[in-house]
Design goal:
9% strand
């Protein structure tokens, strides 16, 4: 069994054929699942799993906040 790698917002943008800015906005609004890296409130680096992103889009629901 191989583990799925985490990818960057640029990779997700390319996969979805949208801009990086759209990916980050969708992440902030809770539409795309992501894992934040680093500390602090304002500057976060996000990492994604393509399978989770596709599942979120297919379901059409937001992730729970909190």
């Amino acid at each position: 069994m191989t583990l799925e790698p985490y990818v960057t917002a640029d990779n997700v943008a390319e996969h979805l054929k949208i801009t990086r800015r759209q990916v980050l906005e969708m992440t902030r609004r809770g539409f795309l699942p992501a894992s934040p890296l680093g500390v602090g409130e304002h500057r976060r680096v996000w990492r994604y799993k393509i399978s989770e992103v596709e599942a979120a889009i297919a379901s059409g629901t937001r992730k729970p906040v909190g």
